[in-house]
Design a protein that fits this description.
Blueprint: H1 2-5, E1 9-10, E2 14-18, H2 21-37, E3 42-44, H3 46-52, E4 63-67, E5 72-73, H4 75-88, E6 99-107, E7 110-118, E8 121-124, H5 136-142, E9 156-158, E10 170-173, E11 178-183, E12 186-191
Length: 195
């Protein structure tokens, strides 16, 4: 909860745009699954969507699925919060250090970590938290662990400030493979190529 107070998590909500009945049916199934998991969602008509997001053109949409608790993290603030918590709990932050290997041993048929090799020497430890993002599979491989992450690059642009955009939900249009996410008082607009 303290992270939310420090604006680490930005929970402006999320809108999933359905441009046709097939996508709308998929989002209705997603809503049902979300209900099972305790995720609050609402199906909105184009006019209800316009009420929620006045800057959006809704002339060509079929409906939207709205999730009020949806959001994203501010990465730099999140890392700062984790670093501070680590130090408050007695941890040590070592900067400008590369991981070159993870040492393990097998005890009673189970592999466990014994240390992390770095460009500055060995750090003896029994625990490793892999929070390396796109490099996650590479680091996990050092310990002989699969990491179900496939990093890929994509393009995005950040707009200038847009009056009235504050507190608007993030938008995802899966048919167009595009998203719009709040970035300060502007938007980060990105997309994914099918290949």
């Amino acid at each position: 909860k303290q992270w939310y107070q420090r604006r680490v998590a930005i929970t402006a909500g999320g809108l999933f745009v359905a441009n046709n009945k097939e996508r709308f049916d998929e989002y209705k199934r997603l809503k049902t699954f979300g209900k099972y998991l305790g995720v609050e969602t609402y199906v909105l008509s184009p006019s209800e969507t316009k009420d929620l997001y006045p800057l959006m053109n809704v002339d060509d949409i079929y409906a939207t699925l709205y999730s009020p608790a949806d959001g994203c993290l501010d990465p730099s603030t999140y890392v700062s919060a984790l670093s501070k918590a680590c130090q408050m709990l007695g941890g040590k932050i070592i900067t400008n250090t590369s991981v070159t290997g993870i040492e393990t041993e097998t005890v009673r048929g189970r592999r466990r970590v014994t240390g992390v090799q770095t460009n500055k020497g060995l750090i003896k430890t029994e625990k490793v938290v892999n929070c390396t993002g796109a490099w996650g599979p590479y680091i996990s491989e050092m310990a002989g662990v699969d990491c179900p992450l496939v990093p890929f690059r994509h393009a995005y642009v950040v707009t200038e400030n847009i009056p009235g955009i504050e507190n608007m939900p993030n938008v995802r249009d899966h048919d167009l493979s595009v998203y719009l996410r709040l970035q300060g008082n502007g938007l980060s607009i990105g997309g994914y190529e099918p290949h």
